[in-house]
């Protein structure tokens, strides 16, 4: 009985020494929204969103995706992804990415459009 009581007191003392978990404030990250809400890209293929050369999201027509990212530079690349739709197999494509400099506490919205060199990001208004 004595050992159990000493063990319980020791466990409570150890838990008291651990600092409580706390959520970071909203200004510690930036929000990046990438939208395909308009029909500017004339394909029904899925578009992959690569952040720093890692596939981070997929966007279909009339959809958007968002990311909570730390402030600083991020490279964004868009690419047609092979999928269930015919004609969506990846071919020779532009491998350039767009470098965005994100600020803490900022909400950035971009829309996907078709440019001279293929898919590109264009700044969009937040609309609220």
3D structure, described in words:
By secondary structure, this protein is mostly beta strands. The strands form two sheets. It has a four-stranded mixed beta sheet with strand order 4-1-7-8, with no helix packed on it. About 5% of the residues have low confidence.
- What is the class in the CATH system? Mainly Beta
**CATH superfamily (homologous) name:** Carboxypeptidase-like, regulatory domain
- What is the second-level CATH architecture? Sandwich
CATH topology: Immunoglobulin-like
- Total individual domains: 1
Extended strand count = 8
Compute the number of helices: 1
Structural class of the helices, strands and pairings? mainly beta
Q: Which strand order spans the largest sheet, edge to edge or round the barrel?
A: 4-1-7-8
Shape: globular
- Classify the helix fraction into a percent range: 10-25%
Q: If you average the pLDDT, what whole number results?
A: 78
Q: What is the N-to-C order of secondary-structure elements (H for helix, E for strand)? A: HEEEEEEEE
Cα-to-Cα separation, first versus last residue: 63 Å
Strand content: 35-45%
Question: How is this fold's topology laid out?
Answer:
Elements: H1 2-17, E1 30-35, E2 47-51, E3 54-59, E4 64-69, E5 72-80, E6 98-102, E7 107-115, E8 118-123
Parallel strand pairs: 1-7
Antiparallel strand pairs: 1-4, 2-3, 2-5, 5-6, 7-8
Give a quick precis of the structure.
This is 3-phosphoglycerate kinase. The protein is mainly beta.
List the keywords:
single chain, 128 residues, mainly beta, Immunoglobulin-like, four-stranded antiparallel beta sheet, 1 helix, 8 strands, 41% strand
């Amino acid at each position: 009985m004595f050992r159990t009581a000493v063990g319980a007191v020791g466990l409570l003392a150890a838990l008291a020494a651990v600092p409580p978990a706390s959520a970071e404030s909203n200004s510690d990250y930036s929000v990046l929204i990438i939208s395909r809400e308009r029909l500017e890209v004339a394909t029904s293929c899925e578009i992959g969103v690569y952040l720093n050369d890692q596939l981070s999201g997929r966007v279909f027509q009339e959809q958007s995706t968002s990311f909570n990212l730390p402030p600083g530079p991020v490279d964004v690349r868009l690419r047609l992804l092979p999928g269930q739709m015919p004609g969506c197999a990846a071919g020779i494509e532009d491998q350039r990415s767009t470098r965005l400099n994100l600020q803490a506490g900022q909400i950035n919205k971009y829309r996907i459009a078709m440019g001279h060199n293929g898919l590109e990001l264009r700044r969009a208004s937040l609309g609220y």
